[in-house]
Amino acid sequence: xKNRTLIKYIGxxxxxxxxxxxxxxxxxxxxxxxxxxxxxxYENSDDVAAANLITKLSFEDxxxxxxxNITNAIGTSVAYDSGVKGKAYSGSDSQKRYAVANxxxxxxxxxxxxFSFWMxxxxxxDPATPGQGKGAQGIFSIxxxxxxxxxINLFIDNPDNANPDRIRLKLSVENxxxxxxxxxxxxxxxIDGSKNKWIYVTVTYDPATSKVSxxxxxxxxxxxxxxxxxxxxxxxxxxxWFAKDPGGIDNPNGVPGYGAIQMVxxxxxxxxxTHQFDTNPPQNNGxxxxxxxxxxxxxxxxxxxxxxxxxxxxxxxxKLEKDNR
Length: 325
What we know:
Distance between the termini: 62 Å
Largest sheet: 9 strands, antiparallel
Structural class: alpha+beta
Radius of gyration: 25 Å
Number of helices: 3
Helix content: 10-25%
Oligomer: single chain
Strand content: 25-35%
Number of strands: 18
């Protein structure tokens, strides 16, 4: 009697288990995983302006560009460490680190652009006593072998001793278009309170408006300086560039804007992690400078677009990146 009861219980348990497994299998089959909610209409960071994304360096223990517009990179003491998403490029305050690579016409032919990347850095150090990690730290430069500065340059400028907590991130551009007299233009992002923290930086240039715009963590950056007639307190979000002397930030001379960029004198090379004059040997006709050095911080998910991203897309890109997508 006991054996028949035990057998009955085992049979019931087996049947219930089979039903449960069948139900679970049905649930798994009929109810797919809930997808992430879209941000700005995008599911993934690479979906943002996907047709215009021309370079992406993720630094996963290599210098590979997902879109192959930067190729054949040759590194000098390049190193990697934990980043925001996987690994990141790791500079040094004691060892010069950089890479020289080939770059395609898709990048040297930029007339408009967006640069977007994660950065973790201290501010620069006064180069009164020269040394690695002191002075202006080069991040990215499109090589022009007969000129001191590259076609596009990103670097952390020399420190503002009155603001020791400030990172001074500078973008400079050289426009060789014949109608442009003021060929070299720049803008400075004065970033406070973010030393040695991961921050997301986006800089765009729109030739239709001749304005350069800067964003910090997806929002318009405050205190932009480093451009002609910039007010002492800087401006927020965007700054104007002009082809000639405008006579003031509001252009009382009525001169044309900076317009489409035309990089001249490039040779299909790019430097990552330092200035074009700071490699060994230099990539141009210059030489290493006591006030300049290679980058001592960290970089991750370095992107280049061939359009100026709209502010909504900049914000979506940051949020997707922050969400590890």
